[in-house]
């Protein structure tokens, strides 16, 4: 079983969205066998606590706060493997979804270092699960598109807005907090309906997770209401509507439902903010106020 992790081998391992219970059994085994683990800043403490014998090396990589650039990370991985260590490169979510795994695969291949990938649960899947929603809907949401909204400083997002605005598409937008107002404006300008459902997921799967629901034309406001600069995922499309949240079954999932006041919504007559607290999650449903 452990012969797939010989000395001098590199594994790119998906750490999932944060909850250690969502880590795959294979990922946990590789962490147990590793000699050294290079991990991103977004890998949760709960997952890192599973690394009990290996040396842990943080290589940072949060937007605007990189402790090491990609070329340096590539070199560290290769150096450790060529020294005969069993190397894990631990990445938040899934390594192959906006994880820059291609550069690390290429670096290993260029130096003859054996490298493999262990997939992980991506944030969009976990957000949909915790939001009691689907990412696809038969007949109305036939496409699922993963998008990164991270652009280089000073550059505008270079995306095919016409394709992304198709009504039968669910968008899962990673690193979209800062660009949320521009995303909403561009999608609406390309033909997406202003009342398209959206869900903002902050700290997905962690104890301080926050889920906010609303509509596309309030996306910028919703992101501000979420507060701070924690990792944020934007999900846009009809599939965001959860039958469970808007039916009697809410009582089976929600332990406490109460309206809360916030300075963020002062003066807003078009939104209604309800705090539905679940242990250990916090779910904020933001929907237009009925007139």
Can you offer a commentary on this structure?
The structure is a single chain. The protein has 291 residues and is of the alpha/beta class. It has two domains: 10-118, Tetrapyrrole methylase, N-terminal domain (Cobalt-precorrin-4 Transmethylase, domain 1), CATH 3.40.1010; 123-287, Tetrapyrrole methylase, C-terminal domain (Methyltransferase, Cobalt-precorrin-4 Transmethylase, Domain 2, 2-Layer Sandwich). The protein has nine helices and 13 strands. It has helices at 25-33, 45-48, 70-82, 101-110, 123-130, 161-164, 180-189, 219-226, 250-253, and strands at 10-14, 36-39, 55-58, 87-91, 115-118, 143-148, 169-174, 197-202, 210-215, 232-236, 256-259, 272-277, 282-287. The termini are far apart.
| Helix and strand run | EHEHEHEHEHEHEHEEHEHEEE
Biggest sheet strand order reads 6-7-10-8-9-13-12-11
Measured between the Cα atoms of the first and last residue, the distance is 62 Å
Number of domains: 2
Main CATH class of the largest domain: Alpha Beta
What structural class do you assign from the helix and strand content?
A: alpha/beta
Tell me the major beta sheet: 8 strands, mixed
Quaternary organisation: single chain
Unreliable runs: 247-291
Number of helices: 9
- Briefly note the CATH topology name of the largest domain: Methyltransferase, Cobalt-precorrin-4 Transmethylase, Domain 2
Question: Could you tell me the mean pLDDT?
Answer: 84
What's the β-strand tally?
A: 13
- Share of residues in helices: 10-25%
Shape: elongated
